[in-house]
């Protein structure tokens, strides 16, 4: 039987998210996909969907994420992080108090310009492809949400932050923008994602600990990570539902986990008092 579910991978620094997905795909012999990429230099939580669980991508896209990041001030880089072409001595190093005084400007709903070295689509090409080719282009600011950002430490020109944000936030851009607010420059020198939705670093696993014998032990059942109420349709409705039809339902509008014969089947939606299966996952 084809396995389906999630592996909460603790991605290693220095490897791509695609490489981690390839390892899981080989272990389970199923198509896989990650729920929110991490740059190669970053480490931490990388939820990987196995089998039909990959159909849930849109449900995880905007989930809250938590990071521990280090920004180095007085440096600049074309990639906005330490892996690019770094310039040193291009701005002053602010004090911890100065940094804390401006962090409030970067919480809540804000506009952020993504890094040019990113996967953002520009006229059919990735931003990083154009940037590497020396093509001049501009990216439009997009609305993001930063729920919280705290300065947690500092040493020389390097300062550490705990950040909680919504999907689509570029932590590298926060480094650039916080520095600009202080009249200087900064790059991101380290990044660890400690949480992505329900997935936390405490219950993650490095792919170098996985093998053909133990991989299944780390497969998290799909239904356990979905924060939706359950619906178990009556026999008279089941035939219609599981053949693509809608049935009357007195539940509030929204997404629900739906069960067939006591087994988890997938996701259904109630809309205008009608229930219909939307995503089959079993």
What does this structure look like?
The chain is α+β, with helices and mostly antiparallel strands. It has 3 domains: 5-61 and 198-222, Pseudouridine synthase, CATH 3.30.2350; 65-196, 2-Layer Sandwich (Pseudouridine synthase), CATH 3.30.2350.10; 228-280, Archaeosine Trna-guanine Transglycosylase, Chain: A, domain 4 (Roll). Helices cover 17% and strands 37% of the residues. It has 6 helices and 18 strands. The strands form 4 sheets. Strands 1, 2, 3, 4, 7, 10, 11, 12 and 13 form a 9-stranded mixed sheet that branches. Strands 14-16-17-18-15 form a 5-stranded mixed sheet. It has a two-stranded antiparallel ribbon with strand order 5-6. A hairpin with a 2-residue loop joins strand 10 and strand 11. The radius of gyration is 22 Å and the shape is elongated. The N and C termini lie close together (10 Å). The mean pLDDT is 92.
Number of domains: 3
Q: What structural class do helix, strand and pairing data support?
A: alpha+beta
Succession of helices and strands: EHEEHEEEHEEEHEEHEEEHEEEE
Looking at CATH, which topology of the largest domain would you report? Pseudouridine synthase
CATH superfamily of the largest domain: Pseudouridine synthase
Query: How much of the polypeptide forms β-strand, as a percent range?
Result: 35-45%
Query: Based on the structure given, which CATH architecture of the largest domain is correct?
Result: 2-Layer Sandwich
């Amino acid at each position: 039987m084809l396995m389906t579910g999630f592996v909460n991978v603790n991605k290693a620094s220095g490897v791509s998210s695609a490489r981690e997905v390839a390892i899981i795909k080989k272990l389970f012999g199923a198509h896989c996909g990650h729920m929110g990429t991490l740059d190669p230099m970053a480490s931490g939580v990388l939820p990987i969907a196995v089998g039909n669980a990959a159909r849930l991508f849109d449900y995880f896209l905007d989930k809250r994420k938590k990071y521990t990041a280090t920004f180095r001030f007085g440096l600049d880089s074309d990639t906005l992080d330490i892996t690019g072409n770094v310039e040193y001595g291009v701005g002053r190093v602010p004090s911890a108090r100065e940094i804390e005084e401006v962090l409030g400007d970067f919480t809540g709903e804000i506009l952020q310009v993504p890094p040019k070295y990113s996967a953002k689509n520009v006229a059919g090409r990735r931003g990083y492809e154009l940037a590497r080719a020396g093509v001049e282009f501009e990216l439009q600011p997009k609305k993001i949400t930063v729920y919280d950002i705290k300065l947690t430490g500092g040493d020389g020109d390097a300062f550490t932050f705990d950040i909680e944000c919504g999907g689509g936030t570029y932590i590298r851009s926060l480094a650039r923008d916080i520095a600009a607010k202080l009249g200087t420059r900064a790059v991101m020198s380290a990044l660890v994602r400690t949480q992505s939705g329900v997935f936390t670093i405490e219950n993650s696993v490095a792919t170098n600990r996985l093998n053909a014998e133990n991989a299944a032990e780390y497969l998290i059942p799909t239904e356990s990570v979905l924060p939706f109420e359950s619906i178990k349709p009556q026999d008279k409705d089941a035939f219609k539902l599981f053949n693509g039809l809608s049935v009357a339902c007195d539940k509030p509008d929204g997404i629900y986990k739906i069960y067939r014969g006591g087994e988890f089947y997938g996701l259904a939606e109630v809309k205008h008092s009608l229930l219909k299966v939307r995503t089959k996952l079993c």
